[in-house]
Each structure stands twice: as structure tokens, then as C-alpha cells.
Amino acid sequence: MPNIEIIRCKTKQYTIHQNLSDFFAILIFTCATIIISIAVALFLLKSPWYGLLGIIPLLFFRPRDLIYRARELEEKIGLKGEIVNSLQLSRIPKDSKENYSQELIQAFIDEAATRIEKIDTRRFVDRGSLALAARFVLIAVAFALIQPAVFPERFWYSLNHRIEYNVSPGSVDYPKDTQADVALQIWGVYLPKIVNLRLSAGEETTRQTVSVQDNIARSTVTVSEPLIYHFEVFEHKTRKYELYPVEPLYIENLFFHLRYPAHTKLAEETRTGRQLVVPEKTVVYVQGRASELLQAANLDFGDTLALTHEGREFHGEFVVTASGTATLHLRARGELHEGIRIYAIPDLAPLVDIFYPGTNVNLPYDMKLDVGIRCSDDYGLSAGTFHFAFEIDTTKLVALKRGAFEDTVYILWDLSDLGMLPGDEVSYYVTIRDNSGQVTKSNTYYVYFPTMEQMYEAINEQEAMLEIDIEDMHTEHGEHIKEVARIQEKLMKERELSWADQEKLSEAIKEEEVILEQINQWQTELEETIEKLNEGIILDQKSIDRLNEISQILEELAPEELREALENLRVAMEQRPGDMQKALEQMRQHQEELAKALERSLEILKRYEQEEKLRQIAERAKELAEQQVQIEELTEAEDGLAAENQQEVDQGMEELIDKLNELAASEGLEEEIREALRQMANEMQNLKSGSGKDKKTGLQNLAMNLEQLYEKLTQGRFANLRKNLLESLKQIIETSEAQEKLINDGLKIDPDLQGKLIQATETIAESLFAQQTKSLFVSPEFGKGLARATLRMEQAQKYHDNAKVGKLRATEAMRELNLVARDILFILARMKQDGSSTGINSFMQQLGDITNSQMSLNQALMGILPIPMQGLSQGQKKQLQRLAARQRALREALESLRNEAAAGRYQDVLGDVIREMQEMEEDLFQYKVSRELIERQKKVISRLLDSQRSIRKEDFAKKRKSKPGQDVRERASPAPLAQELGEDELRELLQQELRKPYPEEYEIYIREYFRALLEEQ
Known about the structure:
Elements: H1 3-43, H2 56-59, H3 66-77, H4 82-89, H5 102-116, H6 128-150, H7 152-160, E1 164-168, E2 172-175, E3 178-187, E4 194-201, E5 204-213, E6 216-223, E7 227-233, E8 236-237, E9 241-246, E10 251-259, E11 269-271, E12 275-279, E13 283-290, E14 296-301, E15 303-306, E16 308-310, E17 313-319, E18 324-331, E19 335-345, E20 351-356, E21 361-362, E22 368-376, E23 381-390, E24 392-398, E25 406-414, E26 425-434, E27 439-441, E28 445-448, H8 452-494, H9 499-535, H10 541-557, H11 560-574, H12 580-633, H13 639-664, H14 671-687, H15 692-745, H16 751-772, H17 780-798, H18 803-834, H19 840-862, H20 874-898, H21 907-925, H22 931-959, H23 983-994, H24 1000-1016
Parallel strand pairs: 2-9, 12-19, 21-28
Antiparallel strand pairs: 1-3, 3-6, 4-5, 4-7, 5-6, 7-8, 7-9, 10-11, 10-13, 13-17, 14-15, 14-18, 16-17, 18-19, 20-22, 22-25, 23-24, 23-26, 26-27, 26-28
């Protein structure tokens, strides 16, 4: 190969490789510019085709010629023009004008060829631009990825520019000058923050920028002239819509012709306006005229009613069934929505009330009940009916004023024809019908022929409610005491009260007066209850006695002194501010007395409740024992009935266990009784899983043990009270003797010794207050008497230097002590008469119950007379059968009582009464009712009452003890009593007290005390 070809081949090889390297570099660079152009176009939300601008660098690319590359190669190899010169010399023709030497040229070429022959020119190809272009591409790619990473929604939208939208309201008509909302709702992957709203009115076009919130761009425009609008979103434009103003549609006149329901008896009438107040079921004929020709007319009132329209007139008819807003829709070129407020007055059902007696009542003594009925209706009354049910349902018409809006009617209801017996009840109510046929029923009330058990339950409930009320009152009264004490302390410090404190004090006075009124109200209610029991068909003396005891408690709760103190404080606040301190002191003192009385009442009521609950539990246990005995007597054929009855007994045992545990957990119960109750509850729990025979024996033993426990509780409390009173009496007498000795020992009162007696008296007072909370026998007057004695002692101690005044006060203190001792003696005598250790009280109680039941039976028998001429009715025969069964039960009870040891020598008397009762029983079973039978009934009652009096007198006679007189030690006489107590009166009092059966342990005190009083007189 010629040397020049070697040079040319080497140079071409380098040129080709270098040009390819530069081409690929510019190509890669062009790709980078395209990527950047596309990214910028997408970011600007332009078409991706804008990326073609990146091709521009490629368009400017031009490859280098051979000579240019030869020079580059020479520089890289280190030659100095040999390659370029060789290439140029090789092009000189042989016959050139210059006539260059071909040998020299060839020699130069050969030398240059020799130098580059073994050189690989590809090593000198510069690829740096290719690497730089590659780095630029990476930068472009990174730049392009920023947008999808940071603004992905914007990126995806820019790829296709897809967005959906909806324009509202579109092209519509509006009343002129109406404020209309135009809105653009947008959906898409990327939503703009703002859009443009173009508005064209006439030749004027404006642009508004509207923000997008929750995918909606909204703007308000005033439609006063034709208005063309469209929205612009990015490069999108919505179609153009037009809002056209029209004159408003209105109603020129509107009338409502009303036809009322017939039962209202109202005349037809026509009304205007946009509000109707009409009765339900009123027919309304609506008629009106609009301002333009109508295309449609509807009335929307629950259902849509199409109105008839002709030109501008419209009319229609509907019925009012409920209140609401009726909307009148009129459409012409514009639309009108007119609201009409309708108030539908319902035809109310008639009102009826049995206002008298207005509650469930017991059967009156005369078996006649006044019933007061009050009724009314909005459109008039039509008829009334009185309903009552006893064995059968019966109705009677009520005489009403027909058509009247209200009426009051009184009915005298005679229940004597019903043949009611104790335990029966009759229900009654009234129905009233109005002019529209609606019927209303009154509350149902009952008339009870009460039994003894129901009376006891009512009394127990009244006691429980009273206990709760007194406990609440005690808490409230304690707060009042604290407030008054605070005000009193402030008055003592500041000598006057602020307006706020005066208001608080006035409020405290009012609240205290409310408490006193509440106590009076309780007492009035108890008196009414006692009066009802006295007037009732069945006379329950036991319930009356219990209520009298509670009434006595309430009498002690509301002293007149507290009322007077409240009134004095009120007067001092209004008229004599200087006396306020004294009035406050009096009020506070009486408040504390009331607080103690409330505390005492609570404790006594709790003790009553404990004793009564124990008695009821004992009675319930006895009933369960009797039921278990009856179950054991059932035959095998009656297994189903036995199982049912056994389930009832088991349930009763469970209730009995709960009651035993509840009573055992009550506050203030003696620990011995508490433990006994818990033990009985445990025994009952174990007994539940036993056999029927075990249950019978266990229940019988439980009933007997509970009765004994009841006696133990009541007698134990009685004995403890008596013991404590005797101890207090002894202490009072000793204190009185010491006070007398103090008076007689010197010319003046010894203040130290008097102070010790004051402490002793206060200790006795505290002891008596503790007993006062346990029994009604211990009166609060004991504490007041001791308080007066203490006050006199303190005065005697204060004036000990003044012999006359000091001894006078000391003598008065002794007199107060003696009076308290006398009162305690009286109370001990009453307690002795009230209690009995022989068991006669139980016997007398049972005999009294039988007597009361016989009296009740006699009264029921008298209600059957006279016998009608046509003979006894079926109802009267049934009533006589029930009375005969009651007579048999009374006879059997008296026979059982006759066999008790307490009957003694009166068994023969009771035997005669039993025979008489048996004969009356047979007459009743044979329907032999006559005046003779009534007289025999009265005779039996009389003999029962005589038996009670005789046995009671004998019981007292057995208790009397006589004891011969004996000498007693001499002692100084006590302070004199009031002058109005003369010698004869004191002597008579002494004889009365000595005739009473006092115990030996304090009989000596009675004799000494009254003998000293007589000697003083």
C-alpha cells in the first residue's frame, strides 16, 4: 500500500470515530434538552409537544472535515504538520506549474507514514463530550422527575389535560334584579385554585376571578339585564349561557272560602291573608288571580293538588287534616312560590275528671259515696255514662247539659245494694262522649271494704314515709342552725348585720316556719286518718293507738316557743334592731330544742319500725308454717297442686330470709336480737333444701321462736327503760337531797359544792335524753325541768355572797328537781299499767280482735235488712254464705282462745258465747235472717265486751300488793310546791299513787316524797 494511503487511512479512521463520538454526544444532549423542554411544558400546563424545542441543538450539529481532524490528530500525537502537509502534498499534480519535486514529496510522505504507521489513532478519539452529555441527560431526567414527585396531580393532569365540569344554572330566566348564583363544578385529577368568569352584558365584557372551594367555583350576579357568561379553567372554556331577566310574578288577590265540620256548628265564611286557623276536617276552597297568564298552578300541602287555571285565574279545593305550610306554585314566564301557614285545630277528645273523691277510698260508714264529675269539650258535650264493676259490670247514665262546653255533675252512689264484705272492692269510672262521637274515659278508682291486714299495711306505710320525711327535715334543720349561729356570731362581733345577712336571716326564718307548717300538716293528716278509722265500718283500735302515739310525737316537734321566737326575731329585724341579739339567742335555743326533738322522733320511729317488722315477720312465718301443713295433708292425686303450693311457700321462705337479714342490719337493734335474727336466717337458708316434713317442722319452730323473740325484744326494751328511769330517779332524789343539805348547812351557798351539783344535774339530763330517744314515756319536759334546775343552780352559785337571793335560787332548783322526780314516778306508774308479765295482754288482744270482727259482721248483717218481699236475691244469698263462713271462723278462734291458760275461770262464760255463735252460724247457713238474729248478735258482742272488762279487772286485782307501813329515816323537807296544790289534793294524789302496784325498789321513794310534801303543807 502506498504510504500516502496509510496516512489517509489513519486520518480517516480517527475522523470517523471522533465525528461519531461528537454526534452521539450531541444526540444525547438533544435528548436531555427534549426532556427538559417537556418537563417545563408540563409544569406550565402546556402541551407536551413543546418538548420538540429540545431538538434545536441537533439541528446545529456539523461533522468536522478530514483536514480539521488531521490537525487534531497531529496535536494529540505530537507531530508538527506532517499529516496535514502530506495530505496536501499528495494532492499536487505532477505537472503542476510550480514543478515540485516528486521525490521530495514522496520522501516527506514516506517519513510521515513511517511515523504514524504503527500508531492506533482510535486511542486518541476524545469521548469527553459523550460523558458530559450523559451527565446532562441524568440531570435532565432528575429535573423531569421533580414535578411528579412534588406535584403528582398537576403532573398527571398536564399529561392529558383532561378535566370535567358542570355549569349551573345554565341558561334560565330570573325575575328582574334577582341575585343569582352561577357556579362551576369541577372534577379531575388536578383542580385549580381559581377560575375565570367572563360576563357579557351588552357590549361590555368583564372578567372575575372566582376561587374554587370544595370543587365548586361560585359567584353571585345581579340579573338586571340579559347576561351572557362562561367559565375559563386553565386552557378550557365552557360554553356560553344566558341569564334573562323577567318581570316578577305575583298574586293580585287570594280568597279562602271555609266550610267547617258539622259538629263545630260554625257558619261558613271567607278569609284573605296568608294564615288560616281552622278546625281539622275543614274544607277550604281557594281562589285567586295572578299578574300574568298562567302556564301551571299547584298547591303543595302534603300531597300536590293541581289547581284549575284559566288565563290569570286559578282555583281549587282541599281538606285541612293537619297543621303545616301549604305552598302555592304558580308558573308563567317566571315562577312564584307563595307560602300559606295553616294551623289545624284538632277536635280534642272531651276532658273528664272525677274530682271527688279523686282517689281510692275505703267504704264509708253509711255505704253511700258522693262522686263529683267535671267534664268539658271544645265543641260541646253529648252524653256521659257512669261505670262500676263488682262481680258484674254495671252502667248508669250521667245527666249532662247536652251541647254545653263544660259541666259539673254530682252523683250520690248507694253501695249498700252490692253486698260487699271486708276484702271486697268495687271499681268505677266515667266515660264522656262529645258532639263528634269521641269518647274519653276517666281514671279508674276503687272503693275498698278494707281488711285488718290492709289497715296495718297502710299504717306501716304512713309510718315509714313519716320517718323518711322527719330524717330529711332533721338534716335541713341542722343547716338552718349553722346559718343562724354564723349570723349570731357575726352580729356579736360587728354589732350590726349587712343587707345580705339580713336577707339570709329572713330566709332562715321563712324556712323554719315552713318546717313548723309541715309538722302541723303531718299532724292534721294523722288526725284525719284516725278520724277515718273511727268512722270506718271496721273499728281497728290497734291502728288508732299506733297513730295516736305518732301524733303525740308530732305534737312535741312543733313547740309554740319556737313560733314565738321566730315572730320576735322578725319584729326585732323590722322594728327593734337593738333587740336582735336577744331574739337570735332565743331562736337558736329553740332551734336546738327542735333538733333534739327531731332526733328523738327518728329514734322512736325506728324502734317502732323494728318491733313492727319483727311482729310481721313472725306472723308471716306462722302463715308459711300453716301452708306447709296443708301441703303435707294433700293426697298423691293432688301432686300438681302440692307442687304449685310448695313453690309459693319456697318463695315466701326466700322473702322471709331477706326480711330477716334486712331487720338484722337495721341500726340501733340490740346485738343479741341481731345475732338471733341472723341465726334464724341461716337456719331458713339451710331449711330451703330440706324435705317437706323438715320444712313444716322448721317453719313451726321458726314461727314460735320469732314470737318469743318479739316478746323478748319488746319486754327487754321495756325492762331496760324501766331500769334506767329508776336509776335516773335515784340520782335526781340524791341530787335533791344534796341540794337541800347545801341550803340548810350554812348561811350562804357554797359555790364549789353548787358547781358539783350542776355537773351532776347535767349528767342526769344527758342520761334522760338518751332514754327520751327510746320511748314516748320519757317526755322532753324532763330535760326542760332539769335545765331550769341547772339555771337556778347557776344563779345560786353566781349570787352565793347574797344569802337571801342565793338560797332562794337554790330552793327553786330543788323544787324543779322534785317536780321532775314526781313526773318520773307518774311515768313509771303508767309503764307498770301498760306492761304485763302474766301473758294476759296477748289473750286480751286476741279477745279484742274477735270482738271487733264480731261487731263488723253484725254491721254487715244489718246492711242486708230489710229482706225484700219476693225473698233473698242470689247476691244476698252469696253474701249470707260469706257471713256464715266468717261466723264459723270467729267461733273456731274463740274455741282456741278458750283452751288457753289465760282464760282461767272464764272458760264457762266463753263456752256460752261459743254455743251462741254456733247457733247463729247455723241460722246464717240456712238463710234465717231476722231481727231476732240481729239481737242475738248484739248479745254476743255485749258478752264479749263484758268478758274483756271482767278479765282486765281481775288481772289488775291479781297484781295489787299491799304492804304495811314502816318507819323511814328523818330527812329535811323539800322545797314547797305551788300554793294552788292544797293539802286535800296532795293527800288524794298520795292515796292514788299508793294504791298503784309500784315495785318495791322505788316504793319507798314515793312514800317519803309525798309524806314530805304533806308535812310541808
